[in-house]
Amino acid sequence: VNVKESLWRSLEEDMVPSIPTMRFNWLESQPKYSKKHKDSNVCVAGEAITVEIEFKNPLQIPISVSGLSLICQSEEETTMAAVSGDESVSGAELHLASASQDELELQKLKGSWEKNAGSSSFILSEVDFSLGGRETTLVQLTITPRVEGILNIVGVRWKFSDSVVGYHNFDSAQVKKKIVKGRKAKPSPSNNLKFTVIKALPKLEGCIQQIPKRTYAGELHRPVLELRNTSEFPVK
């Protein structure tokens, strides 16, 4: 059907504002951070983030693991100044020890764990489990951010047999390689563990009741939509 453009404009006058207006959604209205974090995932303060980690016991004897939790850093802890554009971070806070580093680096990492335990920026879950010989299991860990800002999940720590403390840095497996000219560097898997935490939002959950499993052609049904406000904010 051929319709003149003038007719479309007349129909759209009541729906589209004639004066140019700035369009914002709930993502665009959030605080702007440095370009380094423009591709970060977005999460909401007060809502848990779940990370699944696979553990494998290479031994033929059972082992026990306790106090398994994530190692995280928030904007306040990593001294990331988004307003000033300063992307430098404290080496004492970001430097994670590898298996070949000395006791001094381990002490730095322990300091980061203690900071996690006393942090008011997020809540970490802890999991205890055991592994049989040659057994593999999948463990779910959660972190619940409480304030707006930048959140990085940088590693995981645990206690082996209630005595030996272990840890893993998610970036430790990334070996620096010379990039061939014309090729792009592969993104690190840890990039998926960087989040921009925005303020809490109203959240509705909906469920349609009384949906018939069978119906006749042309038959009219009146299902019931049940809405539940699971947030702390009123919804109009």
Topology:
Blueprint: H1 5-12, E1 41-44, E2 49-56, E3 63-74, H2 91-94, H3 103-117, E4 122-124, E5 127-131, E6 136-145, E7 149-160, E8 164-169, E9 194-198, E10 204-209, E11 224-229
Parallel strand pairs: 1-9
Antiparallel strand pairs: 2-6, 3-5, 3-7, 4-6, 7-8, 7-9, 10-11
Overview of this protein structure:
The chain is mainly beta and 236 residues long. The protein has a domain at 35-198: Immunoglobulins (Immunoglobulin-like, Sandwich). Helices cover 11% and strands 33% of the residues. The protein is built from 3 helices and 11 strands, in the order H-E-E-E-H-H-E-E-E-E-E-E-E-E. The chain has helices at residues 5-12, 91-94, 103-117; strands at residues 41-44, 49-56, 63-74, 122-124, 127-131, 136-145, 149-160, 164-169, 194-198, 204-209, 224-229. The strands form 3 sheets. Strands 1, 3, 5, 7, 8 and 9 form a 6-stranded mixed beta sheet that branches. The longest helix is centred in the middle third of the chain and has 15 residues, at 103-117. Mean pLDDT is 75; it is low at 77-102.
